[in-house]
Write a structure and sequence with these properties.
Layout (H helix, E strand, L loop, with lengths): L1 H21 L10 E3 L2 E3 L18 E3 L7 E2 L12 E3 L7 E2 L12 E3 L9 H8 L7 E3 L7 H4 L10 E3 L21 E3 L21 E3 L11 H6 L8 E3 L1 E4 L2 E4 L23 E2 L5 E7 L19 E7 L6 H16 L4
Parallel strand pairs: 2-3, 3-5, 4-6, 5-7, 7-8, 8-9, 9-10, 10-11, 11-12
Antiparallel strand pairs: 1-2, 13-14, 15-16, 16-17
Bound molecules: 2-acetamido-2-deoxy-beta-D-glucopyranose (7 copies).
Keywords: Disulfide bond, Glycoprotein, Leucine-rich repeat, Repeat, Signal
Protein name: LRRNT domain-containing protein
Length: 336
C-alpha cells in the first residue's frame, strides 16, 4: 500500500514539475519552452530569431518556423550556446559573421531549410565554426563546389550531407578530419566514393551511402582502402554491378572488367626504294599493343604511311678527290 502511495505521489508530482520548468520567463520567449539552459521555440510561426535569449542558453531549437533571414547580430551574446537547430525554416539569407559569436557551438542543424538557394552564403557563414563537431546539412542544395567550404571544419565528428546534389567530392576533402566517425552521404547523386577523399586511415565508424547511383567497379580504390580502416566501420549502402544492385559490404571487385583502349604498335622498319641516299619507303604498324578488350576504343589513324627514307649518303669518290685537288692548287698558288 505504501508503494502505491509513493507511485501516486510521483505521478501527480511529475507533470507539475515539468510544466513549471517549461515556462520561459523572458517576455520575448513567452511562446517557447525553457528547460534549464535549453530554449525550444518550435513550430510557432517565428519569422525571425527571437531577441533577449538568455546568455546562459546552451541549446536553442528554432525548428519548423518561417525564419527567412539570419542577421549578423541574431546570435549575439550567446557565448555558451553549444547546439543550434534551424531545421525546417525558410532561410534565404545569412549575413556574414552571423555565427561568429557562438564560441561554444559544436552542433548545427540547418537541414530542410529549403528556401536556402544561396548555399554558398550558408557555408561561408559556417567556415568560421572550426570547433563544430556536429553538422547536418540535409537538403540544403549543396553542390560539389560548395562542399569545398567545409574543408576547414576539421573538428567535425558527425556530418550529414543527405539529399544534396553532390556528384563529385574533391580528393582530400576529409584529409585531417581526425575525429570524423559518422558520415552520411545518402541520396547525393554520387557515382563513386573514392578512397582519396579520406586519409589513408580514419576513425570512421559509420558511412551511409544509400540511394546513390554508385558503380561498384569504379570504386576499386575504395574497396582496397576499406580493409585498412577500423574493423567496426559500418558501411550502409548499395552499388550497381552492371544491371544488378549489390549490397556494398559483400561486393567483390574480382569480377570487375575494365575497358582497355587499343594502342598502336611502334612503326615497322620502312622498306626503302634506294640502298643509299634519299628515297621513299612504306612503313606499317598494328593496333595490338595492347589488343582491344571489354569495349575499349579502337586505334585512330592509318596502318601504313609513306615516308622519305634517308640512308647513308652514296659515295662520290671522284668529285671529292677533284675538290681536294682544286683546293690544294688554290692554296699553293699564292706561296709560289
Ligand atoms: C549574462 O548576463 C548577465 C547580466 O546581464 C551578466 O551578469 C553575466 O555576466 C552574463 N554572462 C555571460 C556568460 O555573458
Ligand atoms: C575553439 O575552442 C577553443 C578552445 O575552447 C577556443 O579557444 C577557440 O576560440 C574556439 N574557436 C572558435 C572559432 O570558436
Ligand atoms: C533526394 O534529394 C533531392 C534533392 O537533391 C530531393 O529533392 C529528393 O526528394 C530526395 N529523395 C529522397 C528519396 O529523399
Ligand atoms: C542490362 O539490362 C538491359 C535491359 O534489361 C539489357 O538489354 C542489357 O543487356 C543488360 N546488360 C548487362 C550487362 O547485363
Ligand atoms: C572474390 O572472388 C575471388 C574469385 O572468385 C575469390 O578468390 C576471393 O576470395 C573473393 N574475395 C572475397 C573477399 O570474397
Ligand atoms: C608490315 O610490312 C611488312 C613488309 O611490307 C610485312 O612483312 C608485315 O607483315 C607488315 N606488318 C603488318 C602488321 O601489316
Ligand atoms: C619527301 O621529300 C620530298 C622532296 O624532298 C618533299 O617534298 C616531301 O614533303 C617529303 N615528304 C615527307 C613526308 O617528308
Amino acid at each position: 500500500m505504501a508503494n502505491i502511495g509513493i507511485l501516486i505521489a510521483m505521478v501527480s508530482f511529475l507533470p507539475t514539475a515539468y510544466g513549471q520548468s517549461q515556462r520561459c520567463t523572458v517576455p520575448e520567449l513567452s511562446q517557447c519552452v525553457c528547460i534549464k539552459t535549453e530554449v525550444y521555440c518550435e513550430d510557432i510561426g517565428l519569422t525571425e530569431v527571437p531577441r533577449n535569449i538568455p546568455n546562459t542558453t546552451t541549446a536553442l531549437v528554432l525548428d519548423g518556423n518561417a525564419i527567412t533571414k539570419i542577421e549578423s547580430a541574431s546570435f549575439f551574446g550567446l557565448p555558451s550556446l553549444e547546439k543550434l537547430s534551424l531545421r525546417d525554416n525558410k532561410i534565404s539569407s545569412i549575413e556574414t559573421g552571423a555565427f561568429d559569436w557562438l564560441w561554444s557551438l559544436t552542433a548545427l542543424f540547418v537541414d530542410h531549410s529549403t528556401e536556402i538557394d544561396v548555399p554558398t552564403e550558408v557555408l561561408t557563414a559556417i567556415t568560421t565554426l572550426t570547433n563544430l563537431t556536429r553538422l547536418d546539412l540535409t537538403n540544403c542544395r549543396i553542390s560539389s563546389e560548395d562542399l569545398n567550404l567545409l574543408s576547414g571544419l576539421k573538428s567535425l565528428q558527425h556530418l550529414t550531407l543527405d539529399n544534396n546534389d553532390i556528384s563529385y567530392i574533391k580528393p582530400g576533402l576529409f584529409n585531417g578530419f581526425l575525429s570524423l566517425y559518422h558520415l552520411s552521404l545518402r541520396n547525393t547523386s554520387l557515382t563513386a566514393v573514392s578512397a582519396n577523399i579520406f586519409d589513408a586511415t580514419t576513425i570512421l565508424k559509420v558511412l551511409i551511402i544509400f540511394d546513390n547511383p554508385l558503380m561498384c567497379c569504379t570504386m576499386t580504390d575504395y574497396f582496397e582502402w576499406l580493409p585498412n580502416q577500423l574493423p567496426y566501420l559500418v558501411v550502409a549502402g548499395t552499388c550497381h554491378d552492371f544491371n544488378r544492385t549489390t549490397d556494398i559490404r559483400i561486393f567483390n571487385t574480382s569480377h570487375c572488367t575494365f575497358p582497355v583502349d587499343d594502342q598502336w604498335s611502334s612503326w615497322s622498319t620502312p622498306t626503302c626504294s634506294v640502298t643509299c641516299g634519299i628515297g621513299t619507303g612504306l612503313r606499317n604498324r598494328s593496333c595490338d599493343s595492347p589488343p582491344p578488350s571489354d569495349n575499349g576504343k579502337e586505334c585512330i589513324g592509318s596502318y601504313t604511311e609513306a615516308i622519305n627514307c634517308s640512308l647513308i649518303a652514296c659515295p662520290e669518290p671522284y668529285r671529292r678527290r677533284g675538290k681536294y685537288y682544286n683546293f690544294c692548287l688554290f692554296f699553293l698558288l699564292p706561296s709560289s
